[in-house]
UniProtKB/TrEMBL annotation:
Descriptive protein name: LYR motif-containing protein 1 isoform X6
Gene Ontology CC entries for this record: mitochondrion
UniProt-listed InterPro entries: Complex1_LYR_dom (IPR008011), Complex1_LYR_LYRM1 (IPR045294), LYRM1 (IPR040330)
Gene this protein is translated from: LYRM1
Highest taxon in the source lineage: Eukaryota
Similarity section: Belongs to the complex I LYR family.
Domain Complex 1 LYR protein: 11-75
Length: 126
């Protein structure tokens, strides 16, 4: 965390980090299989460490707020559906547009706008 982060924001981020590790500690796989539970717990821990480490030097308050909202959304969705992995989404297809030109740029923009908040950083780490 940088010194540019307000104490309230810092407290919120650290609270989310701790919450994720508490969730991982209590996590039970839907299948009830111990190996699935262990694998899912490890995924939760690794995902949290990776994303928090990646974002630890952010200074823009708006970007920090977006990351906090993404984290909250992923936690709530994971708890609701009882799956730690990001929910699949259906993005508009890229169609037959060539890799350059206005049509491709429009499709790229549409895909970016269509991505839900809980998946904003997913492509960047996978």
């Amino acid at each position: 965390m940088t010194s540019l982060m307000t104490p309230v924001t810092r407290r919120e981020v650290l609270g989310l980090y701790r919450k994720i590790f508490r969730i991982a500690k209590k996590w039970q796989s839907v299948s009830g299989q111990m190996e699935d539970t262990i694998k899912e717990k490890q995924y939760i821990i690794n995902e949290a460490k990776t994303l928090f480490q990646k974002n630890k030097n952010l200074t823009d308050p708006e970007v920090i707020h977006q990351c906090i909202e993404e984290c909250k959304a992923r936690v709530e969705i994971g708890l609701h559906y009882n799956i730690p992995y990001p929910r699949p989404i259906h993005l508009p297809p890229m169609g037959l547009a060539q890799k350059h030109g206005r049509t491709f740029q429009k499709q790229e923009k549409l895909r970016k706008l269509s991505k839900p908040v809980y998946l904003k950083s997913y492509d960047e780490i996978s």
